[in-house]
Amino acid sequence: MKLKAGQRLPFKRRWMQKTDYAARLKLLKSGLPRLVVRRGNDNVHIQIVQYDAPGDKTLVEEISKNLKKFGWKGHCGNLPAAYLTGFMLGKKAAKAGIASAVFDIGLHMSTKGNALYAAVKGVKDAGVDVAVGDEILPNEARIRGEHINPDVVKNFEEVKAKIASEK
Q1: Which of 71, 81, 109, 113 is positioned for an S-S bond with 138, CB 3.0–4.6 A?
Q2: What is the CATH number of domain 18-165?
Q3: Following DSSP, what letter does each residue of 104-138 receive, concatenated?
Q4: Nearest-CA neighbor of 139 among 85, 99, 80?
Q5: How confident is the model at residue 3 (pLDDT cuts 50, 70, 90)?
Q6: Which residues pair with 61 in a beta bridge?
Q7: Which candidate, 144, 119, 132, places its Cα nearest to that of 62?
Q8: How far apart are alpha carbons 9 and 11 in whole angstroms?
Q9: CA separation for the pair 167, 157 (Å, rounded)
Q10: Quick one: how far is CA 92 from the chain centroid?
């Protein structure tokens, strides 16, 4: 990045296209913890983060690879895994006394019914209030994995029951 004389260097995370500071400020002004969902090729990483001046504090977090402990046999980066990871995080958050959060999509594209919204639906179903419209959430058939394989549906139901019964 070339600068002219007297020109200030913008924030590094802005010019690296990692942070949208205007959107972040709007989320922080709500005063609620942020539900941060980040998706990779092989996993979904979900955190509930509280703003703190020296640096944000992670209150609870989950990653989809932890589903293996509950008997998940499928891919950890698909839509049912995102929902189950959100459900797992929501149970943890409810135990920690977190009642509500605001959804932070980051720089991901907002597409109706994608895995990010499946994770949010899982958090909501676990009892944490997240303000998001029901029309953008994926339908139950896709969340359960009916579009993938009947075996995935069976495994999904087993894993969800184990997560729900965990103390």
Answers
A1: 113
A2: 3.30.420.100
A3: E-TTS---TT-HHHHHHHHHHHTT-EE---GGGSP
A4: 80
A5: low
A6: 47
A7: 119
A8: 7
A9: 18
A10: 14
Q: pLDDT for 43-69, tens place per residue?
A: 999 999 998 888 789 999 999 999 999
CB 159 within 8 A of CB 71: yes
Predicted confidence (pLDDT) per residue in 97-155, tens digit: 999 999 988 777 788 999 999 999 999 999 999 989 999 999 999 999 999 989 999 99
The residue whose two tokens read 């969902």 is 37
Q: State yes or no: pLDDT of 33 exceeds 90.
A: yes
Tokens (6 digits) for 71:
């008997």
Burial annotation 24-52 (CB, 10 A radius, 16+ → b, else e): eeebeeeebbbbbbbbeeebbbbbbbebe
Start-end of H helices in the chain:
12-15, 21-29, 79-95, 115-125, 140-144, 150-165
- Amino acid letter, 137: L
pLDDT recorded at residue 14: 67
Q: What's the pTM value of the predicted model, to 2 decimals?
A: 0.85
What is the residue extent of each domain of the chain?
Answer: 18-165
